[in-house]
Amino acid sequence: MRRNIAALLLAIAVVSLPACSSSGGTKAAIVGVVAPLDKGLVQFGRGIRNSVQVAVDQANSEKPLPGWKFQLKAVDDSSDPSTGEAAARRLAADSNVVGVVGTYNSGVAAKVAPVLQGAGIVMISPGNTDPTLTVGSDPAHPTRQYSNYFRMVASDAVQGPFLAKTAFGDLHARRGAVVSETKPVSKGLADTFAADFASQGGAVVLRQVVPDETTDFKDVASAIAGAHPDLVFFGGEYQVGAQFAKQVSEAGVTAPVMGGDGIKDDAYIAKAGAASEGDVASTVGQPFAAVPSARPFLDAYAQAKFADAPTDFGVYAYDAANLVIAGAAKVLRGADTVTAEARRGIVAFVQAADVKGASGTAAFDALGDPRDKVLTLYRVSGGAWKAIKTEGSTP
């Protein structure tokens, strides 16, 4: 039966038995976060961490598990796979960890997920979009990769076609230049976009792959200008994407830049400046400021006065944390420690979840993908992202 997460926590609290340690103290149930906090895509990472903090604080106020206190343990991955793997090992070594929210970057997730799977710890990502994390490298024969891994958002197998369809049908683009960074998630999104754009009748007039973290796009921008596209697609994230957009504009290209969730952040506009005007990007979910189910979370986040915005991924991180907390509150009832059996129980709880959260329905298929796949297209207008259209199941 589909239930509201808050109501589920209340129900668990009502039936929970007191569970105090032999010394009478309060035991710690740790919700881990792996995200870019010090370097990398820190706007996304800090919003994810802060959103989990809201969930943890609310749980400790509501006390769904007497005798236990939920704690946040956030570790930085700097958007770097090796750093993320080391962070995951630190969390896996902590016997009090009941679940992990993260990562944002898909490339980091590929290193973090197997570490957490080895420890039996549930991992719920609010931002990973690389399809291979759930279905494997052969989408025609999908195979679950990690039994402990779930994602809250639609993958690029959905996002790429959505972008191609809107580019061709809504923006009326017919000639597209496609550039991407080398990392698999960025190149994969660009490849999917290019294939779908061409299948609809669009012409890919240029396709280039550049090294990750490229800063000099002058030659690429010149080639784009010579190809005369009416849309430029960039597969990458806001730090590099903003530099790309500026140099493409300086080369005299007036066509808008389009990208995925990696560039849809205010930092893209701040870094690209006037060159970003008219650019378009998709991101996960819908404009949550207008969604009633998200309002309590957004109000609580604002009241906490965090220095960083929740971003589009905060609401998903909040729901992910609440799933971990609800699972822990159920399986740790009457327990004194977080056992391997308890961790398996939390994974099973998340797999079976079908509840209403701030972002909508939290429920997963057999591969760990969300049942609801919602995406929104935005355009930069007047120096701000403005929603154009939303597709998919909504709250």
Which CATH class of the largest domain is shown?
Alpha Beta
Broad structural category: alpha/beta
How far apart, in Å, are the first and last alpha carbons?
16 Å
**The CATH superfamily title of the largest domain:** Response regulator
Going across the biggest sheet, name each strand in turn. 8-7-9-10-11-14-15
Q: Give the fraction of residues assigned to helices.
A: 40-55%
- The number of helical segments is 13
Radius of gyration: 21 Å
Mean pLDDT: 94
Q: Main beta sheet, described?
A: 7 strands, mixed
Could you name the ranges where pLDDT drops below 50 across 5 or more consecutive residues? Answer: 12-24
Whole-number tally of structural domains: 2
Overall geometry:
elongated
Strand content: 15-25%
Give the oligomeric state of the chains in this entry, treating copies of one chain as homo and distinct chains as hetero: single chain
- Indicate the CATH architecture of the largest domain: 3-Layer(aba) Sandwich
Note the run of SSEs as H and E: EHEHEHEHEHEHEHEHEHEHEHHHEEEE
Write the layout of secondary structure elements.
Layout: E1 3-4, H1 5-15, E2 27-35, H2 42-62, E3 68-76, H3 81-92, E4 97-102, H4 106-118, E5 123-125, H5 132-135, E6 149-151, H6 156-170, E7 175-181, H7 184-199, E8 203-210, H8 218-227, E9 231-235, H9 238-250, E10 257-259, H10 266-272, E11 280-284, H11 295-304, H12 314-331, H13 340-352, E12 354-356, E13 361-363, E14 375-381, E15 384-391
Parallel strand pairs: 1-12, 2-3, 2-4, 4-5, 5-6, 7-8, 7-9, 9-10, 10-11
Antiparallel strand pairs: 11-14, 12-13, 14-15
Helix pairs in contact: 1-12, 2-12, 3-4, 6-7, 8-9, 9-10, 12-13
